[in-house]
Amino acid sequence: MARIVVKFGGTSVANVERIRNAARHIKREVEAGNEVAVVVSAMSGKTNELVGWVNEASKFHDAREYDAVVASGEQVTAGLMAIVLSEMGIQSRSFAGWQVPIHTDDSHGAARITDIDPTELDKRMSDGWVPVITGFQGISPHGRVTTLGRGGSDTSAVAVAAAVKADRCDIYTDVDGVYTTDPRIVPKAQRMTKISFEEMLEMASLGAKVLMIRSVEMAMAHKVRLTVRSSFDDPDAPQIAPDGTPGVPGTLVCDEDEIMEQQIVSGVTLAKAEAKITLRKVKDSPGVAAAIFGTLADKGIIVDMIVQNIADDGATTDITFTVPDSEYDKAVKALEDNGGRFEYARLSGSKGGAKVSVVGVGMRSHAGVASSMFKALADKGINIQLITTSEIKTSVLIDEEYAELAVRALHTYYGLDRQDA
Q1: Which residues does the annotation place in the binding site for ATP?
Q2: Are residues 355 and 250 in the same domain?
Q3: Which residue in 46, 100, 254, 394 is a FRET match for 143, CA 20 to 30 A apart?
Q4: How many Å from the N-terminal Cα to the C-terminal Cα in the chain?
């Protein structure tokens, strides 16, 4: 018998029929003798609808009332799921975040979980009940409902799993696992049996949209084993792991120690719509980088790749970095209107770049991964504009028109194509 937290995203609970299908997955786990808790998102599209209503009511709304409205989507889903489970003969009750309770700070709209009291959930699960918990929300120190921001339901599920000391947390979504790259770009992409927390964190931050970054960070911190699996698989089908043996379908996200053999490169990611900005001949003095990026941070602009080159005279430097295309004009204006915080000779930039990255914990113990990546791209005539590296990833900025060609070339070069494809 295992203790499991299962989470269903918006597409998996988009209507009552899909909620009933998700409930069959839960019933299978209960009948296998497992203790189960459920975390649900709002029905697909409902949160956007609620946000639209708030903005229609007032563009300058109180963030506390925003949360009160937007949090209602998950409450509907949780209630419906509990009703369907009860109809199937499974004892179930819905719990809003504040009823658990899931304590957060008071940053309405983007709250962070501070603590979960597992007492009531532990009791319910031990007694054979299935609690259905609203994802995406909690309660502030002042007793107000809060929401956790984008991807909050994944974060809720991981936090609940950590609180109740679950053996694993199953994230049910509309894909059947984590792939070596986007299968829409590379049909030969293969589903991974296992991936380490660190690799998943890098892939999530570099463009893979299977799991949200905050949920992976929390899972890694609390050692919560995650599985990514599809809610659209037949709930009554035999449970077969990716390696063909009986077990849990999908991809296991776990500690690196659980993975016996590490490929040098585990995956290739792509993020489009990247803009490049270069400040030429910036006066090189202590604090200048802090002033430049502080100016952008003050405007809420997220900076990604950063490269600095010191000029021959040693007195000036060129600084190049990337921002999302949508933030380009805002970033340029902020830098031009910097109020004398820093000096530079000229600003240049362009939109329409793409960031392609290779990720793998095996890169730690293998030299030459970056150089082989550059060669693979050069063989296809692809020019590299920027390069950044970390211990387990190398990223390059290229023209967006070559993005998919680059992904396919690297996927093949590192032997990630499925052998039977």
Answers
A1: 7-10, 173-174, 179, 184, 209-210
A2: no
A3: 46
A4: 37
